[in-house]
């Protein structure tokens, strides 16, 4: 493979966990719920995916376990914030603390164990096309899933009735309730989807990105995913762009260092963060449009009047 | 009347799923806590900067703790606090250890130096041991490993195994310990392959598997066919395995993660030192001192030489033996820095003071070290 | 299974009772958890909740740990009332520490009583400057402050790393990444000798009082509340949102910066790569535990400090791994946050179904 292909492959790997987790959070937020516990759900997803993969020898079971575990974490969050009406911001942060502890406990017996990396697809001929072949036809399943999810989320929100309802619930829970939608039920589903996607992102980390388990291995990626949702102004296409921008600059600065640029590495490491801010500033010009996309009820407690 | 907002079937399904997950994890759910029995002769406390499940630095120190328990049995009890930030928390945790009956306390990260010193002055009857620092008082010793000795051996192997004459080095932070390792590595490499160079990428983290792996990819993409690392996770080595190049393990033998790629690994073995110091306290012979132990003493050990031809393994073993016997020093003159200036003449050796504060690259390292 | 019935108006009784109930539930769950881990429940709970209070040093450490949490939580609570989401207090704290610390190092040779106040002012200004970036970008370019403040946190931590690895490094420190130790005139004096409790704790209490006065007595406090509760009404009433955004961010940034300067001058005594173990993030929880009320924030800060110190004590005394203490801390927070529902609602367990 040539250098450019390899570079693009690295970028895709770096962007995929961010994209998966952020897509889930996007749906959660669209329903009007702000879950800051992405990091916690992701790390629990990572350890459960790894543990099940090792125990069963089946990577698909591991991926499924990651998603279920993420959703189970999200269920805790949902119960606290939707049923018990606890504050969403604080509960999300508490969920992260909880998840880091829980994952360490679950992972105790799995430190230092190796597992084969998630299989990469190989389609004869197609995967061998120069440049595009390995990128389009030589990735592992979760990379495709992340890209398909972008399309699916886009389609869901734009083209389906359920997507419309989801947006309605996020924009005005009172009105949606008045029309007869079960706001809480819809929000539960959105929160669970968010958790499952964060769990998948974790599974990607522990099975494909770096096939191993070690404590705190998510290293803050859940937070970046949260920021990317804001960056996207709740639009899946922009989310894709954001994840690849962040992943791309992260990889490029490593390449620049390797090539011997004389800039202090700390300054180089700042670049992905600074670039994200810069691009956000450029694309945030249209106030009205952002207000249109932003779920108006984000973070607000809903209790149907008696 | 309003019902619980999710349907029964839906909830039951979820709970069944969660139960299945719990069943899978049932087996390894045991916790090996520290023993905290009361009546022992000696209570040893440890403070770790990372979680013991990091499989890197803190994990190895915890293995050392466990070896004290194994060796001295009923005579000691140990306890530890993990993931303690090097800021204000460190002083409190060390104080708590000292005031709760621990007679010997190991503080296992450089950032604990000043907090350890402060607490040591307040508790003159407690013995303290600080890893990788340089401040000592009557009841505070320092200790560290000469990991650079192992890196020289790795360099020799890399120099013989490389086809591109370029090695890649995934580095954490530009501190003397890491810079010394890079320099020792390239000196080993150039001792057998004068054309060799090493490229360095700093990830600004001790521990971020994803980023470490990405750094290794960047280095491989730019021509490196040997990956060395001074970060904690097996990710760079795994990346080497996936990309079909070679690499070295860090802190532990990581052959399981890279059966085809690991040439050898530097293994941090704190156990013998910890046992020795614990015994010294028990015997009343403990004294404040500085220990900088290497291959000879066994604090730095090498994993088996694998994935290399016999002649390379033989050369590596010979280098290892020479360093052990003192016949070879990784920084024996002439040592030439990156700018071409001779910093140690032929027949001299860079002394420990210079090595301790090393903040320049030697020749063969690409790129510049930020000042 | 569970449904909530509105009480009509908030119950005063339950605003005090709900934390008590949360503690009861936590103790019960904790006992179960610790027994499951094979550790005795009684001594574990004692180590977690009581032992830190049994010595003067332990109790004073609660104040040491709570001081930055309270200072930051106070500032954040003001912004959160107005829906200004400063998630980057950690970065503002770091800039405050850098500014205060750099001043101490610049006047390393000078002994003057003015140095400490100057460091504190520098800390406040440093934090404000860092918070001014998201404020400016939100007001001027409509850029969301959640993203900007969070991203700037990483930038701040890298900046600190760069400085202590380079320009601010101790010239006699063998090139290790730390600055010189500050002189006495740059060190915050302690309140009680033998402890680390310093004058910063007093500042935190004063700040709580000042913010309470501002929120309850000033027009500005009222405007912030309206902006948060009913942004359209606020606009209709002619409140200038940009002004309130600026105010919220500068206030929370300034207080976070002060916390940073206090941390380096009061407890750490030098600049090092990691100054805060995540105070800026933890303080977000503190703000909500305190129900965004200044007095509540003080209590919330102390509670949160206890959960950390109790966790350390349980590791030392009982041998509970940090994983368990972290898990337990999460559970405790869940209960504390969820029980507040009882202030406004009563629970009804309807329809006797096996499982809802």
UniProtKB/TrEMBL annotation, chain A:
Location in or out of the cell: Cell membrane
InterPro entries xref list: ABC_transp_permease (IPR001851)
One MF term in the entry's GO annotations: transmembrane transporter activity
Tagged with keyword rRNA processing: no
Keyword annotations from UniProtKB, A to Z: Cell membrane, Membrane, Transmembrane, Transmembrane helix
Membrane topology summary: Multi-pass membrane protein
Record-linked CDD domains: TM_PBP1_transp_TpRbsC_like (cd06580)
Coiled coil regions in record: none
Keyword Plastid: no
Highest taxon of the lineage: Bacteria
Recorded GO CC terms: plasma membrane
Residue stretches spanning the membrane: 6-26, 33-53, 59-80, 92-116, 136-157, 188-207, 213-232, 239-256, 262-283
Protein name: ABC transporter permease
Source taxonomy: Bacteria, Pseudomonadati, Pseudomonadota, Alphaproteobacteria, Rhodospirillales
Automatic annotation (TrEMBL), chain B:
Gene3D superfamilies: 3.40.50.2300
Keywords in alphabetical order: Signal
Signal sequence interval, chain numbering: 1-33
Record GO cellular component, one term: plasma membrane
Positions of the ABC transporter substrate-binding protein PnrA-like domain: 43-311
One Pfam assignment: Bmp
Protein name: BMP family ABC transporter substrate-binding protein
Upper lineage: Bacteria, Pseudomonadati, Pseudomonadota, Alphaproteobacteria, Rhodospirillales
TrEMBL record, chain C:
Cellular component aspect of the GO annotation: plasma membrane
UniProt keyword annotations, A-Z: Cell membrane, Membrane, Transmembrane, Transmembrane helix
Record's keyword annotation contains Cell membrane: yes
UniProt cross-references to Pfam families, sorted A to Z: BPD_transp_2
Mode of membrane association: Multi-pass membrane protein
Chief site of localization: membrane
Transmembrane spans: 12-34, 62-80, 92-108, 114-137, 146-164, 197-215, 244-262, 268-288, 295-311, 323-343
Keyword field contains Membrane: yes
Location of the protein in the cell: Cell membrane
Region forming the signal peptide: none
Gene Ontology terms, MF aspect: transmembrane transporter activity
PANTHER family (alphabetical): ABC TRANSPORTER, PERMEASE PROTEIN, GUANOSINE ABC TRANSPORTER PERMEASE PROTEIN NUPP
Stated name of the protein: ABC transporter permease
Organism field: Hwanghaeella grinnelliae
Lineage, opening ranks: Bacteria, Pseudomonadati, Pseudomonadota, Alphaproteobacteria, Rhodospirillales
